[in-house]
């Protein structure tokens, strides 16, 4: 028999001032997995987290932990009895307690058992040598590691993390994210992470819950959300986009790169063909020689370089297309800095394009 999910959220609603901040939100998180609520500020992510933690109460909906009801609109288990750990961006360490005392806070059992748990966790987050230090003596990254150890010390079945890495220097974030993920997997804790950073969600999550205006608009593995976005806004959340606009005629849409198949859409429908800059290809072999109509990636189109910039790992080149004057961007690995005014032929990966009805 398949065990119930560690966290099961069903049809949550929450309103403030007549506005639905959380609107029919449902999802589940199995034990040992990381789910990420991803979305812009104000979309309802943190409110959802607070309801699960028990510090806010839903207007409708139910929440289960390991198949057991922890709250609905009538029944409510207090936050301290939910076996839910919390971790926030400000770390919230007690300044008057040592590192060891912070991690031990809330633990039960004998003194030796608590000490053993504290030492084990601090060693696993590489903070054992700071066991007797106080928070003010630690860097931001070190405080983050202590906060993680404290959140995991009572062995919560679920850990809720609200923008936990946003206060860290950018150079530290990836290392601490990876260390955190490894420890969470070792502990087998179900994790619900809230963030507005797509890179963070892609790096840490087993499943992403893309949230917009209080609703989950798409959910799935990071690969699926990136490669099969539900709409243009979902695609744009993960990267810059180029937009080719057109109108359907006989299941085809005319673009600078030739006709695109757009089946299932009635004639006259305005569409947006979306392609990411890394999938707009500069045809170096054909530079200055004109198009080859048998090209694998469809009809090449000519554009004039407007500007180019080196971004560190890649170069970004902006083109004005001869066909309609539209502006398209291409990213090229390493250093590539063509001069403004230079004409070049471009191609697109048709298998990497998304077609959506145009937004009103």
TrEMBL record:
<keyword id="KW-0067">ATP-binding</keyword>
<keyword id="KW-0997">Cell inner membrane</keyword>
<dbReference type="Pfam" id="PF00005">
    <property type="entry name" value="ABC_tran"/>
</dbReference>
<keyword id="KW-0408">Iron</keyword>
<dbReference type="Pfam" id="PF08402">
    <property type="entry name" value="TOBE_2"/>
</dbReference>
<keyword id="KW-0547">Nucleotide-binding</keyword>
<keyword id="KW-1278">Translocase</keyword>
<dbReference type="GO" id="GO:0015697">
    <property type="term" value="P:quaternary ammonium group transport"/>
</dbReference>
<dbReference type="GO" id="GO:0043190">
    <property type="term" value="C:ATP-binding cassette (ABC) transporter complex"/>
</dbReference>
<feature type="domain" description="ABC transporter">
    <location>
        <begin position="7"/>
        <end position="238"/>
    </location>
</feature>
<dbReference type="InterPro" id="IPR008995">
    <property type="entry name" value="Mo/tungstate-bd_C_term_dom"/>
</dbReference>
<dbReference type="InterPro" id="IPR003439">
    <property type="entry name" value="ABC_transporter-like_ATP-bd"/>
</dbReference>
<keyword id="KW-1003">Cell membrane</keyword>
<dbReference type="GO" id="GO:0015408">
    <property type="term" value="F:ABC-type ferric iron transporter activity"/>
</dbReference>
<dbReference type="InterPro" id="IPR015853">
    <property type="entry name" value="ABC_transpr_FbpC"/>
</dbReference>
<dbReference type="InterPro" id="IPR003593">
    <property type="entry name" value="AAA+_ATPase"/>
</dbReference>
<dbReference type="InterPro" id="IPR050093">
    <property type="entry name" value="ABC_SmlMolc_Importer"/>
</dbReference>
<dbReference type="InterPro" id="IPR013611">
    <property type="entry name" value="Transp-assoc_OB_typ2"/>
</dbReference>
<keyword id="KW-0813">Transport</keyword>
<keyword id="KW-0410">Iron transport</keyword>
<keyword id="KW-0472">Membrane</keyword>
<dbReference type="GO" id="GO:0016887">
    <property type="term" value="F:ATP hydrolysis activity"/>
</dbReference>
<protein>
    <submittedName>
        <fullName>Fe3+/spermidine/putrescine ABC transporter ATP-binding protein</fullName>
    </submittedName>
</protein>
<dbReference type="InterPro" id="IPR017871">
    <property type="entry name" value="ABC_transporter-like_CS"/>
</dbReference>
<dbReference type="InterPro" id="IPR027417">
    <property type="entry name" value="P-loop_NTPase"/>
</dbReference>
<dbReference type="GO" id="GO:0005524">
    <property type="term" value="F:ATP binding"/>
</dbReference>
<keyword id="KW-0406">Ion transport</keyword>
